[in-house]
Amino acid sequence: MPALIAPDGTELTYRVVGEGEPLVCLPGGPMRASAYLGDLGGLSTRRSLIMLDLRGTGGSGVPTDPSTYRCDRQVDDVEALRAHLGLDRIDLLAHSAAGDLAILHAARHPQRIRSLTLVTARARALGIDFTQEHRREAAALRSGEPWFEHAYAAYEKAWAGTATDADWDAMAPFFYGRWDAVAQEHAASEVEQSNDEAAERYASAGAFASTGARAAVEALDAPVLILAGELDSGPLPRIAAGIAESFPRAEVTVQRGAGHYPWLDDPAGFVRTVMAFLRQVDR
């Protein structure tokens, strides 16, 4: 795998999937190796996907200082990747928890962002979080599913802070539009791809100075796509619309029937949506 050295000396690796103009992709989790992104539903047939393994995940090295797992301290890693690729500005895509990292990078280096695509992404960096009520609201949409009763009972334990590993496994269907063989295989790979210590530190105290980031992105002169899943709780479509209001040039798309991984639920639809947005950027 190609690699670069972060400013603190940590080796970072990344995967290059596909051909075409580069699209830098940040994985969520938080702190899950980029392998779970696959080829983003075939987006690699239209763009060269540059998929960074965040420090301590995938092929990337473990940092000497574990405090550098904190989200805001990984902004320098993203900027180092941009410089390593020799790109003056980047098209940046972030999924889930990496939304915070992408937003903080855009806030700190707005002149380096050509476009920003936030896929079912968090926005704690803007002071917007997803609540237990949001989770319940989305979960209620799945009440007709054969797995609902068992999964919802596990969800209740998670909210109460008593969930076991088996409970976390049981609630996985809520994150997919279809709980089919593809989704089940995808969910089963999460544990081996994730760095739990890093995940605990990712959003630790001080990671999100929301006032400063919000003020910075309010002046961001780059188009932003907020892509939400109709069935997802993080963010709910209406919360995604609120995130979009933080940016001067943002648009919101809600993918029908999609959960937290929309490129799995409708690959062709996902690619059409993202490429329609990026073609506007290319003009």
Write the topology of this structure:
Blueprint: E1 3-5, E2 11-17, E3 22-26, E4 48-52, H1 75-85, E5 90-95, H2 98-108, E6 113-119, H3 132-140, H4 148-160, H5 165-170, H6 181-188, H7 190-193, H8 196-202, H9 210-217, E7 224-229, H10 237-244, E8 250-255, H11 262-265, H12 267-282
Parallel strand pairs: 3-4, 3-5, 5-6, 6-7, 7-8
Antiparallel strand pairs: 1-2, 2-4
Helix pairs in contact: 1-2, 2-9
CATH superfamily: Alpha/Beta hydrolase fold, catalytic domain
CATH topology: Rossmann fold
- The CATH level-2 architecture is identified as 3-Layer(aba) Sandwich
Tell me the name of the CATH class: Alpha Beta
Number of strands: 8
Q: What is the mean pLDDT?
A: 96
Give the terminus-to-terminus CA distance.
Answer: 32 Å
Number of self-contained structural domains: 1
Poorly predicted regions: none
Q: Gyration radius, to the nearest Å?
A: 18 Å
Number of helices: 12
- Topology order in helix (H) and strand (E) letters: EEEEHEHEHHHHHHHEHEHH
Beta-strand percentage?
15-25%
Largest sheet, spatial ordering of strands: 1-2-4-3-5-6-7-8
- Percent helix range: 25-40%
Backbone structural class: alpha/beta
- Specify the overall morphology: globular
* Biggest sheet layout: 8 strands, mixed
